[in-house]
Amino acid sequence: MDRLTEMEAFATVVDQGGFTDAARKMGISKSAVSKHVSSLEARLGARLLNRTTRRVSPTEIGLAYYDRARRVLNDAGEADALVTSMQSAPSGLLRISVATDFGVNHLSPILGEFLQEFPDITVNMVLNNRYAELISEGFDMAIRVGDLDDSTLRARKLSETSKRMVGSPEYFEKYGHPEKIDDLNDHQLLHYSNQSNGAVWKIKAPSGELRQVRTAGWLSVNDGQSLLNAAVSGLGIAYLPNYLYADAMRDGLVEEAIPKLPTETQGIYAVYPPGRFTQPKVRAFIDFLAHAFADKGPDNW
Question: Which tops the pLDDT comparison, 91 or 148?
C-alpha cells in the first residue's frame, strides 16, 4: 500500500476521532480507512490506536508518530500547492502597502503597464506612511525603503536610493551651512514623525563612524513630500531619499547641507509574508518591479 495514504488515513482518524468521520473526510469507505491503518500498524510493528466500541484514540507511540506524520503530510500538501501555484496564471486581488510619496511618484505611473500585462489581476494600492502589519491587515506585499525591522517577512531587493540632508539656498544664506555633523545641533531639522527612533538622525561621518544627531526641530510630519516642501520653503534641513529631492536639487530649489559627508545608500525592497511558496500574483508584480527599476541606481531616481 501507499505509505503516504496510510499516514493520511491514520492522521485523519486521529483528527476526526474515529473511522466513520475519517472515511467521510477522505471520501472513501470506512473499511478502506481501517485497512490503511491496519497495514500501517503491521508495517511499523506497533499499535498506534486504542480502539473501543465508543471511541478511538492514539496510543503513546501513535501520538508521537502522529506529530511527525502530520508534518510530512503538511509538507506534501505544500509541495502540491507549490506546483499548482507555479503553473497557474497570476490572477486575483493584489493588495499593496506603500509609502505615499513612493507610491505616487514611482508606482502609480507604471501600474497601468502592469495591469495590461496581467489583465486577470486587480490592484488595491494603499498609500500610507507607516509600516503596515501585512498579515493582520490583509496585505499581500509592501514596498519599503531603508532598514527592514521585521525579520519574519520575506524580502527581495528591487533597487537602491541615496539619502542626503538638503535645505533651500535661502535657508543656508540666512543660517549658514553646517560644516560638520556637530553643527547640526544649531540648525532647524525637519523630521519624519512616524520613525521608530523619533527625532534622531543616524549619519555616517567621513571617518566611517555612525553618528547620531538628536534635535526636536520645529516641524515633524509623516510624509516625505511634505518634508521636501518644508525644506524648499526655507523651514530647515530635511534628510531625504534621492527619489524625493532629485528634481528639486536639479532645479536649484534645494542643495546639500554638508557635501563632504559620505552619501548614505538605502535599499528599496518588496516584502511579503513568509511561506514556502509565493502567490503567482505577488511573484508577477515583484518581477515586474525588478524589471521596471533595473536601470535605477542610488542617484538616478
Answer: 91
